[in-house]
Inverse folding.
């Protein structure tokens, strides 16, 4: 079945550091890829998405590129802020695989220190 | 407009009791999803509805779990004879065709 693998952390960085959170996937069909973010005490929010190979999703300074050849969707940000501290989930949607729900990675807890 | 709402926000129940969790999707959203978030398993997809129909129930963890949706709107997830391993946050999401899923705040279920 479909699966998503991401680094679990916690990842601790200093403010203004460069961030990369790796995400790789396996899917039977041609999935859409997502990054969701969960801030402390809040619900899941969509951060960015990409629906086909080589698409780049971007939002709030975060970027991720859909790489079909490496089955990856790594999340990057050039300069993180304390307010970016949250749990980040990589996910895929693969209706061709049967169910229409999202398959999530286990989440990466990001801690940004001032 | 209003987002996805879930009730109750917290539920503590004794092992063996039945519980009902409710989800109110965003108005006009045709698809509705249930997920479970637990420490051991992360975020798991349980079931989805297109209108009132659930095409695939294989994601439900056991036959103690059931879900229904009426009027193309509100959905209820029912867990019968709760067990301690059912303790988790249950998330609901909804979406329109070709849009992303919007998540509710979740119901934290604790089985004692």
């Amino acid at each position: 079945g479909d699966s998503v693998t991401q680094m679990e952390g916690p990842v601790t960085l200093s403010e203004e550091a460069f961030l990369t959170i790796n995400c790789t996937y396996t899917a039977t069909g041609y999935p859409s890829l997502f990054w969701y973010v969960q801030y402390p005490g809040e619900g899941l929010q969509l951060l960015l998405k990409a629906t086909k190979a080589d698409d780049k999703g971007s939002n709030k300074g975060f970027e991720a590129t859909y790489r079909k050849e490496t089955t990856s969707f790594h999340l990057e940000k050039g300069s993180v802020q304390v307010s970016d501290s949250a749990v980040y989930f990589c996910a895929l949607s693969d209706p061709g695989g049967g169910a229409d729900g999202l398959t999530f990675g286990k989440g990466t807890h990001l801690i940004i220190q001032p | 407009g209003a987002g996805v709402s879930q009730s109750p926000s917290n539920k503590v129940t004794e092992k063996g009791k039945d519980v009902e969790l409710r989800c109110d999707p965003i108005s006009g959203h045709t698809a509705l999803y249930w997920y479970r978030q637990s420490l051991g398993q992360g975020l798991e997809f349980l079931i989805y509805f297109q209108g009132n129909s659930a095409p695939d129930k294989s994601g439900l963890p056991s036959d103690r779990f059931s879900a229904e949706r009426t009027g193309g709107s509100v959905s209820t997830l029912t867990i019968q004879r709760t067990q301690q391993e059912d303790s988790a946050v249950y998330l609901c999401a909804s979406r329109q065709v070709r849009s992303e899923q919007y998540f509710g705040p979740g119901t934290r279920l604790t089985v004692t």
Summary: The mean pLDDT of chain A is 93. Residues 91 and 103 of chain A are 5 Å apart (CA to CA).
